[in-house]
Here is the input.
Amino acid sequence: MHFVFLHGWGFHAGIWTDVVSQLGAADVTLVDLGFVAGGPEGGTEWPEDAIAVGHSLGAMWLLERGRGRFKAMVSIQGFDRFCPHVAPSRAVALKRGLGRDPGGTMQAFWRSCGAPDFAPPEALNVAALDEGLDWLMHWDARRAKEELDCPVLALGSRDDPIVPPAMTEAIWQEAGVIWSPDGGHVLPLRHPRWCARHVLEFADTLSP
Here is the structure.
């Protein structure tokens, strides 16, 4: 069994460390999008029969750029498009903040997610973060999601301030959503065992 993990905007692949530790002998590929330094080294290749797991923007990245390269998908607080579910002005404000005070802007963002002090200011790749905000503002992977020909699992948090429950329900209603009562916007950090359990249970339902 092989899993490929994609983190969300403003994080690195280290967000998955505690989840992966619960997966036993499974093979794992971590993809790192370069927003923040300091995480484990990321890979770019994985087998097409892998189970893809994306957190937040990572789920949209899998839909947009990973099509045909996995046999099943897990969205953890993910989406097929960010705007207009969330007002574009939020991404614009983050862009302005990155230009004025990258460290302070990211500290505020991590704190709102439930992961204060995720990384030091010197770890930030401001250009990559700015590009990621463009993805959030402009990517629309609805058609890619509709064309998925594979099983899908969606996990969400009832107290997610970034991807609120109504947004999660609107996007993943046909797949159903398994809810954690809490976890902020960082279920992989706050509840890694819970995430891993549901990922493994989902994997066990798939045909070889």
Observations:
- The first strand starts at residue 2 and ends at 6.
